[in-house]
Amino acid sequence: MISEILAAAGGLGTAAVPAGLALRAMRIRLGRARSECAVARYDAAHDKLTGLLNRAGLDAAMAARADSGRPWSLIMFDLDGFKRVNDTLGHDAGDEVLVEASFQLFMAFDEAGDQVGRLGGDEFVVLTDDGPDRTPLTWMRALNALQAMRWPMRLEMGHEVTVTASVGVVSVLPGAELARVMRSADIATYRAKARGGNQVVEYGLPGELAMVLGSRPDSQLRDTTAAAWPVLPVVTR
């Protein structure tokens, strides 16, 4: 047994090294291996650019919520006019905008149980513990995040960029199919985008689209009047 431990310690001479030293060396190597595994697991679940959860991390987080048996909410953010930033200012500027938007979302959703991720491109998802009984709170938090993202961003190259987002909110009941949850969020976000962006749309139960207005945080609203806020285009200078 001692000879096996000594051999695992990394080539130390079996005749010259005490067993205690060999055991300590073994623990160090095992500790390093665990750290490397932890780093690999973190990298596999997080976006390299923003540090948020990536698609794999979000899938795991949603699966855990589905298994919990508790209601929750999914909020999808799709930046308005982001392609124009890439096309006019370049991808480095686009990356800066993505990082800044990620930071704003991370700061807006910092309560215990909140999870923020990047689906890819300029799409972000927030998972919260706010369920159907707290829909007005979910709406308010999404609206606050949207307001924070509307502030002009000063990029390193000196340009000032203003972007908005189209936001879809889905309240999820226990037992809901995750693929359907994502489709519902896509539909709500697309409706917000089609109406000019810079607004929040709730995918209401049992499947109706409910426009959520800035002046009226009513989760039962079923009319599709245009949002109260004006649409802000991407501004670069």
The largest sheet, given as strand count, sense and whether it forms a barrel, is: 6 strands, mixed
How far from one another are the termini? Answer: 71 Å
Which descriptor suits the 3D outline?
globular
Can you count the helices? 7
At the first level of CATH, the class of the largest domain is: Alpha Beta
Q: Which H/E pattern describes the elements? A: HHHEHHEEHEEEHEEE
| Rounded average pLDDT | 77
Tell me roughly what share of residues is in helical segments.
40-55%
Identify low-pLDDT runs: 1-9, 210-237
Number of domains: 2
**Structural class computed from helices and strand pairing:** alpha+beta
Question: In the CATH hierarchy, what is the architecture of the largest domain at level 2?
Answer: 2-Layer Sandwich
Strand content: 15-25%
Q: What Rg do the Cα atoms give?
A: 24 Å
User: Can you tell me the CATH superfamily of the largest domain?
Assistant: Reverse transcriptase/Diguanylate cyclase domain
CATH topology of the largest domain, which one?
Alpha-Beta Plaits
Strand order of the largest sheet: 2-3-1-6-7-8
Summarize the entry for a quick read.
This protein is of the alpha+beta class and 237 residues long. It contains 7 helices and 9 strands, in the order αααβααββαβββαβββ. The protein is globular and about 75 Å long.
Write the layout of secondary structure elements.
Blueprint: H1 2-8, H2 19-45, H3 55-68, E1 72-80, H4 82-89, H5 91-108, E2 115-120, E3 123-128, H6 135-149, E4 153-154, E5 160-162, E6 164-172, H7 178-194, E7 199-204, E8 208-212, E9 235-236
Parallel strand pairs: 6-7
Antiparallel strand pairs: 1-3, 1-6, 2-3, 4-5, 5-9, 7-8
Helix pairs in contact: 1-2, 4-5, 5-6
